[in-house]
Design goal:
The chain has 5 helices and 6 strands. It has helices spanning 22-32, 61-72, 89-98, 125-138, 166-188, and strands spanning 8-14, 38-43, 75-79, 111-117, 141-142, 148-150. The structure holds flavin mononucleotide.
């Protein structure tokens, strides 16, 4: 753990509610190959209602829970699908809801890493760059590399949810290592 007493706590969430989601599988694979010096809790975005700014001063219990978990985490790991060349509404909605009301942004200053799997050939690249754009205003600190983009997901992830492709597994491990190192650096100030 290189001098830090406490492991880095990572909160992971996937931008898909689908039971067989490839992106949920990426998170599960990450949990199974977590390097020493970190913990990973996976939060399900199910139950976060469509954001309505009229109600932002009284968020739902699920949104409160999500915000508390973000706040408590040392780092975030987001697995995003790509929908119509961008991030899915479920993910954007959850981020929008958690970021409000103005002045109560739990993402502020958080280290974050992104990965994504799609059935298309670009492996969520476009979704990931849109997500990175939101990090600017949220004042998050993203890991730049490696970029974990898994194209043609059924070739790398089985229906049982196992990530079988060794290169993909190596990239996920590399991303986790980079996120933990980055979070440790930021924690030291
Ligand atoms: C509304 C919608 C839009 C999609 N748009 C894209 C896209 O732009 N690029 C892509 O590679 N796949 C696209 N797909 C296919 C997704 O890659 C595929 O559904 C994937 O399994 C979603 O991630 P998940 O398995 O984590 O739910 C789209 C799927 C849906 C339902």
């Amino acid at each position: 753990m290189e001098g830090n007493e406490r492991p880095i706590s990572i909160l992971g969430f996937a931008g898909s509610l689908r039971k067989g989601s490839y992106n949920r599988m990426l998170l599960r694979a990450a949990a199974q190959m977590l390097p020493e010096g970190a913990t990973l809790e996976i939060f399900d975005l199910e139950g976060i209602p469509p954001f309505n700014q009229d109600l932002e001063q009284s968020p739902s219990e699920r949104v409160k829970e999500f915000k508390a978990k973000i706040r408590a985490a040392d780092a975030l790991l987001i697995a995003t699908p790509e929908y119509n060349y961008s991030m899915p509404g479920v993910l954007k909605n959850a981020i929008d809801a958690a970021s409000r009301p103005y002045g109560d942004n739990p993402f502020d200053g958080k280290p974050v890493a992104i990965m994504g799997a799609s059935i298309g050939m670009t492996g969520t690249a476009r979704a990931q760059y849109h997500l990175r754009q939101s990090f600017v205003w949220l004042n998050m600190f993203p890991v730049n590399q490696p970029e974990v983009m898994v194209p043609f997901a059924p070739n790398s992830i089985t229906e049982q949810g196992e990530v079988t492709d060794q290169k993909t597994r190596d990239k996920i491990k590399e991303l986790l290592t980079a996120l933990i190192a980055w979070a440790n650096r930021l924690r030291q100030g």
